[in-house]
Amino acid sequence: MLFYREIFSLLPVLTTDRLILRKMKLSDARDLFAYAKDPEVSRHVLWETHTSIRQSRRFLRAAKRQYRLGQPCSWAITLKNSGRMIGTIGFMWLNTEWLSAEVGYSLSREYWNRGLMTEALRAVIAFGFDTLRLQRIEAQHTLDNPASGRVMQHVGMQYEGTLRQRVKNKGKYEDVKLFAILRTDPRL
Ligand SMILES: CC(C)(COP(=O)(O)OP(=O)(O)OC[C@H]1O[C@@H](n2cnc3c(N)ncnc32)[C@H](O)[C@@H]1OP(=O)(O)O)[C@@H](O)C(=O)NCCC(=O)NCCS
Q1: Three-class SS string for 24-83?
Q2: Sign of torsion, CA 79 83 85 88?
Q3: What is the maximum span of the chain, computed from C-alpha positions, in angstroms?
Q4: Average pLDDT in the 135-139 region?
Q5: Is 145 inside a domain boundary?
Q6: What distance in Å separates the CA atoms of residue 170 and residue 49, rounded to the nearest whole number?
Q7: Residue 133: inside a domain
Q8: What's the pLDDT tens digit per position in 74-120?
Q9: Which residues line the pocket of ligand 1, CB cutoff 6 A?
Q10: Domain of 76: which CATH number?
Q11: Which of 60, 113, 120, 148 is the Cys-Cys partner for 141 at CB 3.0 to 4.6 Å?
Q12: With pLDDT > 70 as the criterion, what percentage of the chain qualifies?
């Protein structure tokens, strides 16, 4: 338990070819608001479309609180070349008894379809198995968001089934497709 608290407090930086995943900070508010105000980005995730930069600051303060408490949390996805924050990815929950966890992510629309989330998710899955010593990592997406399912498949996650009315998103119950990868599965 302490092990996970320490790791989530620390949240080590992860580096990929084009990205640096690091802790969110309050100075990311402008970059975050630039994409979180886009309803096309927030449509498929559980947070509401940001309507003001104050809301983005609140989001960042909540993330910082999770770091402080050592709770499952997300990285800022930043571009290596500019430092700009263009999304988030991280752990929604983690079960310390079963060593399972769920990942979630979102990306600025400006950067969709360049393989960036696949790159970020691959790094987070490696962190989950190699550093957190997890046995199973899950992810889920609503039926109208097949692009997210493609990202999951790209990294070797397998489709396990459809869960009916599993989430309530923007006031509406929605079915989700559940994907998972085990530590013994091939990573792609
Ligand atoms: C889903 C999301 C994370 C994908 O990120 P991304 O960086 O564009 O993903 P990648 O470029 O790595 O891969 C996207 C894949 O989806 C495919 N795709 C894109 N739009 C699609 C669509 N409408 N239907 C089916 N596949 C689609 C792309 O072709 C690509 O697959 P391919 O490489 O096999 O051709 C991004 O669109 C996003 O942040 N959306 C809003 C928030 C969100 O949905 N978060 C996930 C909640 S589960």
Answers
A1: CCHHHHHHHHHHHCCHHHHCCCCCCCCCCHHHHHHHHHHHHHHHHHCCCCEEEEEECCCC
A2: positive
A3: 44
A4: 98
A5: yes
A6: 10
A7: yes
A8: 999 999 999 999 999 999 999 999 999 999 999 999 999 999 999 99
A9: 41, 44-45, 105-107, 112-118, 141, 145-148, 150-151
A10: 3.40.630.30
A11: 148
A12: 99
Instruction: Give the closest residue (by CA) to ligand 1 atom 23.
Output: 147
Could you tell me the pTM of the whole model?
Answer: 0.97
> Whose Cα sits closest to atom 22 in ligand 1?
147
Quote the ligand 1 centre to 70 CA distance (angstroms).
Answer: 30
Residue 2 reports pLDDT greater than 90 = no
Judged against a pLDDT cut of 90, whether residue 1 lies above it is answered with no
Mean pLDDT confidence for 164-180: 96
* DSSP per position, 154-174: HTT-EEEEEEEEEEEETTEEE
> Taking residues 147-172, what's their average pLDDT?
97
| Pick from 178, 28, 41, 173: nearest CA to 102 | 178
Looking at the CA of residue 113, tell me the nearest atom of ligand 1.
11
- CA of residue 174 to ligand 1 center, whole Å: 19
Query: Distance between CA 80 and CA 12 in Å, rounded?
Result: 16
Across the chain, mean pLDDT equals 97
Closest by Cα among 119, 125, 85, 90 to 104: 90
What gap in Å lies between CA 170 and CA 149, rounded to an integer? 20
pLDDT per residue as tens digits for the range 20-30 = 999 999 999 99
Is there a domain that residue 188 lies in?
A: no
